[in-house]
Design goal:
Oligomer: homodimer
GO molecular function (chains A, B): ATP binding; catalytic activity, acting on a protein; proline-tRNA ligase activity; transferase activity
Helix content of chain A: 25-40%
Distance between the termini of chain A: 37 Å
Shape of chain A: globular
Subcellular location (chains A, B): Cytoplasm
Function (chains A, B): Catalyzes the attachment of proline to tRNA(Pro) in a two-step reaction: proline is first activated by ATP to form Pro-AMP and then transferred to the acceptor end of tRNA(Pro).
Subunit structure (chains A, B): Homodimer.
Protein name (chains A, B): Proline--tRNA ligase
């Protein structure tokens, strides 16, 4: 059968061609399909179910912290986009422009939102009047468009899904706290739910968001040593608010400008999951977001009682786990490969002998460890094994990141590491964008972040030798 | 305080100016805000929470029936839109066109999706090969754009949120069953969750979806007697599939074209909720989708123990109901008006005397009926009262619809009813679009649907006197 053949075909090993390995996985695990629209993808059911799980976890966390969901228009009038100078400079070159509605040319062009600060500010200007109206803690789940030249599934696409939180506060202090709080939500989500270790830090001025005073980021390291910016949180001060004339009566009955943040995480994190946990057998999914957590495979399913037992276990487990039975007539070997490709964390095998003994077999996807489990203790065993998966893949990723993180004391050292060792480089920096430019030019690396956890490696900038301001991570990035 | 003043201000009575009453509610219940983009609205937290509840209920039902969520691009290349002749004729005049990406003019214009049949077909052509790939039962939650000239919040906007299901089947029979099944899901959701009585039927050829063979609809009647199309389900036969060269190997190993459906419900249903249940005190929300089902109002809250009791009740109830305490320093009278405006189904009052007696007061929003409830029986009482609300508002809407539905035997009768009595008119029809045109011209009514539950009113068409084919509902519509 065509389907069978397609799926047992091996994927390109990552050591051979990492980019092709990635592409093979997104296609063969049926996460996405290319569409007829350049740079826009079809997210297929299995891929979208991962995003739905990500969304549900984050959405619950946002709401627990008092955030509310809203919906803003998908279009931004050109004049609105232009209100904040740095912002328009950053985004105007990469937006899609709507110029006609039906057969009529529009008086003013509309861009398809690349991000929605301007729309939120336009709304906030109408609804914020008093300190009693603050804070405003809004979030929106939507897709946005950036006219990227080169695109890759999930990692960089013309249209992508994300959430964007946009908040307004009485004081700068409160807004700064919100910026950090939401970065911590992302970091905690990545580490505990996605099992992706991240470095928290601040972006340099060169790398920060257009219009922001400060951008905080979480950076993860992929299999190939490249960094992936996994989530960002921005502090705007009152710059946008002033540009949009947002003003409120403060507690002293005086007009005041509020302080603003925004923060976002996107479908790009699915690319991060693939490139952190995947292996040469396919996807490896963290249990918290796996569409199927346990796949039940009946062994010798034609024998009496096997399928019934499989269905019975499914019905028993489905209240606690995302579980499915594959009762198709494919061979067990085919099914093993299929669900390894799809990254299902646990495989549950049940055959006639197991039934006799009142047991089943649980096999972990990431290390293929096998345990025999008495059926009466199945729920506890699955919970424990899913936790083993989470810890196991986290540890693996953390060890890899540590073994691929280097320290450079001077430019020659940094250049040599960058040329020969994929990974991240820690080095001191003076804070001058000229040195950033030079490192990019000479060693091909960009600044990833100035981590909150600083180490004092030396007193001087790795590039110019002047007094250093901050230890900074450098590397190649997605 | 400015806020207080704004909210206790009465709204325009619906008898005086129905359109203004509607606008007052959407604004004063804080469902939406007008945006700077013509015809596009900001859906504020309270309005969006209603949509999230609608989405969650429908999404669960779709998934129980085997549907899977996906994401298609938001853009459609012009050539793709043109593949199905009737479809492009129907939609091309009302789409937004993207002509530039960044500073470059595109080689081919892209429209912002007005609906996604073409995108789904384009994908299906790539992934459907064998009868084993069928049925495909996909759904997507997104927003779409139609360049409407005149817009009204929720009822008709340039951008609106909806879900669109798109399915492919081996046989026409299966696809027809799906079309009906999904119409029934919508009807059941409207009647049981939203408490909106609906008429199920088929659209005439003139009113059907561009490109469909048959469109089924559910029609609801609003306070002012106008009809609202609340959800539609379309059967496409194999028309689109042929236009898009979708073909599969059937069970006899022969190439065959699959059969298709699509079905959608949108944020317009929020307009339907407002105009079915709302009254001159504001919104009335059906409990299933109300963001707050029970608002707890502490009475004499400065007295010792009152606030604590209110919080205790909230914490006790919050696992079972969507519940909130208003502990602000506004007066009880202000709070009563506020939550009536917001349509909260039940108000729970608790004061010092109630606490002494171990009771509280529950007041139903829609009829202001008051019951005293012993605190030990509170959960049961709330469940029972929410069910009373649901039944009560459903019955009220049904009685109104029945009292505003008329029968016409000839054109003069129909015209007179249409001129003098807002509502729906049942009349026999020959099936000729010319008669539809004439009724529109003469009496200002359009065909709403040919209901599945037919009545034989007479043998001849109300318009031309030729033999009748179907009893049809006629009326003015949103």
């Amino acid at each position: 059968m065509a389907d069978q053949k397609k799926l047992v075909e091996a994927i390109t090993p990552m050591e051979e061609d990492f980019a092709q390995w990635y592409t093979d996985i997104v296609k063969k695990a049926e996460l996405m399909d290319y569409s007829g629209v350049r740079g826009c993808m079809v997210i297929e059911p299995y891929g979208f179910a991962i995003w739905e799980n990500i969304r549900d976890i984050l959405d619950r966390r946002f709401k627990e912290l008092g955030h509310e969901n809203v919906s803003m228009p998908m279009f931004i009038p050109e004049s609105l986009l232009q209100k904040e100078k740095d912002h328009v400079e950053g985004f105007a070159p990469e937006v899609a422009w709507v110029t006609h509605g039906g057969s009529e040319e529009l008086e003013e062009r509309l861009c398809v939102r690349p991000t929605s600060e301007t729309l939120f500010c336009d709304h906030y200007a109408r609804v914020i009047h008093s300190w009693r109206d603050l804070p405003k803690l809004y979030n929106q789940w939507c897709s946005v468009v950036r006219w990227e030249k080169t695109t890759r599934p999930f990692l960089r696409s013309v249209e992508f899904h994300w959430q964007e939180g946009h908040t307004m506060h009485e004081t700068a202090q409160e807004a700064l706290e919100e910026t950090e709080r939401m970065l911590n939500v992302y970091a905690d989500f990545c580490e505990n739910d996605l099992a992706i270790p991240v470095i928290k830090g601040r972006k340099t001025d060169k790398e920060k968001f257009s219009g922001a005073e400060a951008t905080y980021t979480i950076e993860a390291m992929m299999h190939d040593g490249k960094a992936l910016q996994a989530g960002t949180s921005h502090y705007f001060g009152d710059g946008f608010a002033r540009a949009f004339n947002i003003s409120f009566q403060n507690r002293e009955n005086k007009p005041q400008t509020p302080f603003q943040t925004s923060w976002g995480m996107s479908t790009r994190i699915i690319g991060g999951i693939i490139m952190t946990h995947g292996d040469n057998n396919g996807l490896v999914l963290p249990p918290a977001v796996a569409p199927i957590q346990v796949i039940i495979l009946p062994i010798a399913q034609h024998k009496p009682g096997v399928l019934d037992k499989a269905y019975e276990l499914r019905d028993r487990l489905k209240g606690s786990f995302r579980v499915r039975v594959d009762d198709s007539d494919q061979s067990p070997g085919w099914k093993f490969s299929q669900y390894e490709m799809k990254g299902v964390p646990l495989r549950l095998e049940i055959g006639p002998k197991d039934i006799e003994k009142g047991q089943c077999v649980l096999v972990r996807r990431h290390d293929r460890e096998k345990v025999f489990v008495p059926l009466e203790d199945l729920e506890n065993a699955i919970t424990a094994q899913l936790e083993e998966v989470r810890k196991g893949i986290y540890e693996k990723a953390l060890q890899r990141r540590e073994s691929m993180t280097y320290t450079a004391k001077n430019l020659d050292e940094l250049k040599e590491i960058a040329d020969t060792h994929p990974g991240l480089i820690k080095a001191m920096w003076c804070g001058d964008p000229a040195c950033e430019e030079k490192l990019k030019e000479v060693a091909g690396v960009s600044s990833r972040c100035m981590p909150f956890e600083q180490e004092h490696l030396s007193d001087t900038c790795v590039c110019c030798g002047k007094p250093a301001k901050a230890m900074t991570y450098w590397g190649k990035a997605y």
